[in-house]
Design a protein that fits this description.
Oligomer: homodimer
Shape of chain A: elongated
Number of helices of chain A: 17
Structural class of chain A: alpha/beta
Largest interface: A-B, 77 and 77 residues
Chain lengths: ~600, ~600
């Protein structure tokens, strides 16, 4: 199923590779005279050639004798050659782009492999969605290695998703070709408390001798973290404090140090290795979530490494953290992650290390990018009809749909207070006065109405609540990017604008929308599962900028406000969340009525 | 087949382990207050507890809450706790002891796992012999992890062995329970030159996702070493120069730094990491071959680490080199090699790091050794009849059998010159005068007669030659430890004594013998495959000392002369060797006549 992430199996070509190394058969490509970033010994080795045949490295050293008729010789004098960069944990859907377009954006920045966890599309379309995004990825040279979503739904019993994934699904998918492990096990409470089903999901992964990736997002590094790691989960990208990242490494867990578009953890967590005299083999740099404007404007792992250098990390160790360390985390270092004989010829040529400026990129021995662009156009990929028709909402949505009725004249409601750039929110109780028996948004107190519509199976479920912190005076926003169930989330000051944005998304198949005074201000269609577009990164960057401008126009000055909004339904984060089933107290895991006692 | 090297599968017990870490279920054992040798981060962490349940580590840190009724609490204050030591490459047969007795000798020194390559017994008894030695090992707590012999016979076409191992055997054995990889691929010329069958033997290993171990014994680190590594071989223990070990690490090959009883390479090769500022994750310390007197008198990996410390290595890095580095080499670091949650509770408690003095040893959570002794006696193991009747020599052996006839009165013969403590020998051409039409030993010129009898299948093949360098004036020695085919090798000054030692070994089922003036001076029976005894290490140490004394008595002052003698038939070493088929020129791989032109 799908493409393999190696062009050839080593044991099928090793005899030929040996002959190439001996000069008996000419190499296909020889890259000459670069300084090798040796990630095995953490050294720079000047004037090193690399000979390639059949997608793999045959020789590293002096390759003069490997050059024959037909050998392509690349002069790399004055440059640096390193293993292709690996992102150990990413959700492609966060880029709002198709997997192919994502690859087109990141490969020219030196990324040759990603460990992707497509749990967004899986929540909408199930394992079919996972298959389709892998097919989408397969048209690009990028090695898309799949970690199967482990938590679909994220918080069972508190939300409605388009699919569920259980232990039997994990057992089956572990046999798929490109599966290398399990996606982030977010249900750390289940693991920590010994829940059998949650352990079985990790267990099916271990039984298949694959790697379970983690998500342990609380600042507790004693019994809870031990209980989590004892389950066999091998890595975690959720540390936000240096001491937590260090505690994980000390407990044999790969600490994936994150610098996402919206989560700027690196400045803090990199101190785990820059301020301690430690072996850093358990440290990995990852992105988790990257938006189009980050990828287009700043880059991918090259950008994250530049950040790391600015925080005091040395460049060779930085490169180890996106190559051999990541490959060892996934126990794939016999295939990937170093420029050594027999490994896949996934190579990056850099102009310099200070700026991590990428000149050329090879994957499986093929030159796939130079001067910031792919060398070949990608074949188109069309998602099946089901994937682009995912707005299944019961009945019509009108302004009346948004009305919240009450029997009291004066009442108290639970509200959620969001903060820009933070994932956590806060629960409050606010006094509210009914208007004609209805509870309304109160922009004067920055209290907006929030509504979540189940959109997968026309169940008709709708959750109602109030949210504070966006600062919007007049208007409404809607999004089908609404973690992790990705139901239709609408926030606004008035029912009319809320109906406008909701219906705009229902009509276009999902995405994001902003309206004011009964008219759309901006619309970003994301027709693939309501999460992604098939448009290229340049267009998406502009579209996202237009969306941010629309938010600003209606009064919100938060950075990436749609990200903050998208977390409103994510019931595995503290303190209060709103799903299609209602308000969830995420400290006690109980539903709360909208009106407080 | 055989015991697994874990007591439990992690996914079967992980839910319970998590509960133990949380204090919901009491730990079976808590080791309290030691300083942890953290091999993940290369740090010492004071006052660290380790909680154990079901053979695995549940928690590392403060384990107060894990102690309940029935928990065994071990006070380890003032001591150091480290992962159990792993020997990445050993031949148990070199100890001349059964695998059980070998384990009894090494476990109290902190060794909890070995990667064994039983290619000696395999040459005699084939894969049956491998199964039996694994059964023998299974009665001890030591984790005997099997790397299947790759080169049986060592030099096909030049010697007769009791068995052959081909690619189909490798394919089959890779499915055996305790198989973790392929034994040392000594046929590096075959690999380097792209020989299909040799690559297939490595290839079947890679196809099974297991680790192929190596043997690249020449001081060439350019195209040949690249060609060898490109085959997928992952480690090599044959470096004798620091620059070779470093070159291997730079090419992504684990450099196994050897300190065997007869091969004292460490003083030189450790400089690869002590004199270069390199990441040492690719360095591993191993023994390869250890004799009873080394194990009894000096120790095992603890001894090798003491040596390494005396050469300037720091103790934490030394411990990394027998724990996590080795586990990562075999891609088994999710099971072994660190004191972290979920891993096997293979633990060593040390009184101090300067002397690496081992106080207690746990394997799979069980206390298996303390104060230098196993805590429990081993069950007996009896090898099958076929394993202890391996002397199958055609016809009777009499003094007449050793006669070498010539048609010339004056002639020239090829001789092998051996040197104590070295594996290589030298070829010479010496003038010789016939006595009654016979060519005889000439002790005045230190030229002895050497004869090799095929002993596996009564083929009647006998090879004749002359050897220099032992310094023996009167007497004869015989051995069935005669690498790698382990035929019956006899060396002596006169045919009578040669017949005495030969018949002594035929009678006792193999071993080593020394005779003078028609009488046995010493006899060391090794009835198991003619290689090993079932006697314990104390007895074996005395017996080997008696054998060395006998050699000295007849005039040989070489250290461990029987080791040097045992290499006479090993036709993969330069320059001239003698097998049961005759003299082999090992630079050209051609048979040579005894008499030179």
């Amino acid at each position: 199923m799908y493409h393999h992430f190696t062009k050839t199996k080593l044991h099928e070509v090793s005899a030929t590779l040996s002959k190439v190394a001996m000069g008996v058969i000419p190499a296909e490509t020889v890259i000459r005279g670069a300084t090798l970033v040796n990630v095995c010994t953490c050294e720079l080795l000047e004037n090193t050639d690399v000979a390639v045949w059949g997608g793999r490295i045959a020789l590293v050293g002096d390759a003069s004798h490997c050059i024959g008729e037909g050998t392509e010789v690349v002069d790399a004098a004055g440059k640096f050659i390193a293993p292709g960069f690996l992102d150990g944990h990413i959700h492609v859907e966060s880029s709002m782009m198709s997997a192919g377009e994502y690859a087109r954006a990141v490969v020219p920045h030196g990324t040759t492999g990603i460990y992707m966890d497509p749990h967004e599309i899986c929540n909408v379309l199930g394992l079919d969605g996972v298959k389709w995004i892998m097919e989408d990825a397969a048209r690009s040279p990028l090695k898309a290695m799949l970690t199967v979503p482990s938590c679909v739904p994220a918080v069972p019993g508190f939300e409605d998703t388009g699919a569920e994934v259980g232990p039997a699904d994990i057992r089956e998918t572990m046999q798929w070709d490109n599966v290398v492990g399990l996606g982030e096990m977010m249900n750390f409470p289940g693991i920590v408390n010994g829940d059998a089903r949650t352990h079985a999901i990790v267990g099916e992964t271990l039984a298949a001798n694959k790697v379970a990736t983690g998500h342990y997002s609380i600042p507790e590094t004693a019994q809870g973290l031990n209980a989590y790691i004892a389950s066999g989960v091998r890595c975690c990208h959720e540390s936000t404090r240096a001491e937590d990242a260090l505690a994980k490494m000390r407990l044999g867990m790969y600490a994936m140090l994150r610098e996402g578009s919206a989560w700027h953890d690196l400045v803090e967590v990199i101190r785990s290795v820059t301020e301690h005299e430690v072996d850093s083999r358990f440290a990995v740099l990852i992105s988790d979530d990257a938006h189009p404007h980050t990828l287009a404007g700043q880059g991918h792992l090259d950008h994250i490494m530049r950040k790391a250098l600015s925080y005091g990390l040395d460049p060779i160790r930085a490169i180890q953290m996106v190559t051999i360390n990541c490959a060892q985390c996934f126990r794939m270092d016999h295939e990937l992650g170093s420029v050594t004989p027999g490994k896949c010829a996934d190579l990056v040529l850099l102009d310099n290390l200070e700026e991590m400026k990428v000149a050329k990129v090879w994957i499986n021995g093929d030159l796939v990018a130079e001067n910031g662009k792919l060398t070949e156009e990608l074949a188109p990929y069309t998602y099946p009809e089901r994937a682009v028709h995912t707005m299944h909402i019961a009945g019509e949505v009108t302004p009346e749909t948004f009305v919240i009725r009450t029997e009291k004249a004066e009442t108290k409601v639970h509200t959620m207070e969001v903060m820009g750039g933070k994932v956590n929110n806060f629960m409050h109780v606010r006094e509210m006065t009914a208007v004609d028996g209805k509870l309304c948004a109160d922009p004067s107190r920055d209290i907006l109405k929030a509504v979540v519509f189940e959109r997968h199976n026309e169940t008709g479920k709708v959750g109602y609540g109030f949210v504070e912190g966006f600062g919007i005076k007049n208007g409404a926003m809607a999004s089908t990017v609404a973690h992790d169930a990705h139901n239709l989330l609408v926030v606004g000051t008035n029912d009319e604008d809320m109906a406008v944005v909701a219906n705009a998304l229902i009509e276009c198949g999902g995405g994001m929308a902003v309206a004011r005074d009964g008219k759309l201000v901006a619309l970003l269609p994301l027709p693939i599962a309501g999460l992604m577009s098939d448009r290229p990164v340049e267009e998406m960057t502009e579209a996202v900028a237009a969306m941010e401008a629309a938010w600003a126009e209606i009064g919100c000055t938060m950075p990436s406000p749609f990200m903050t909004m998208a977390l409103i339904p994510l019931a595995c984060l503290p303190e209060l969340r709103l799903t299609d089933r209602g308000l969830v107290d995420c400290t006690t895991f109980r539903f709360l009525p909208l009106e407080a006692e």
